[in-house]
Amino acid sequence: MNVFLTSLLAVQMIAAITMTVLILVQHGKGADMGAAFGSGGSGSLFGASGSANFLSRTTAVLATLFFAATLMLAYFGALRPDTSTGSVLEGAAVSVPVPAAVVPSIPASGSAQIPTK
CB of 22 within 8 A of CB of 62? Predict the structure, then answer.
């Protein structure tokens, strides 16, 4: 089961990184304005509208894969047996000692506060 969860986590991370790169590569709605200033050659690999269709479909497939991997990780993470006796905060409270409060000493009378020089 541990190998399955590790491979599922790897699939989720690869899908997330690839999807991020694909989103950053895609042209925005104002990309045609940039073509007037000399950056029009970037869409020539897939044709005029081929890159938008290819990149958007690939992004949609990766988003679906990422969403499915996230749901499966959440489901299988909830099925693990609970080996702890309490919450994480309860365990931290037991292991960390709390220092005692330091109370400043107060002289019995005000004469100790008067400078002698």
Answer: yes
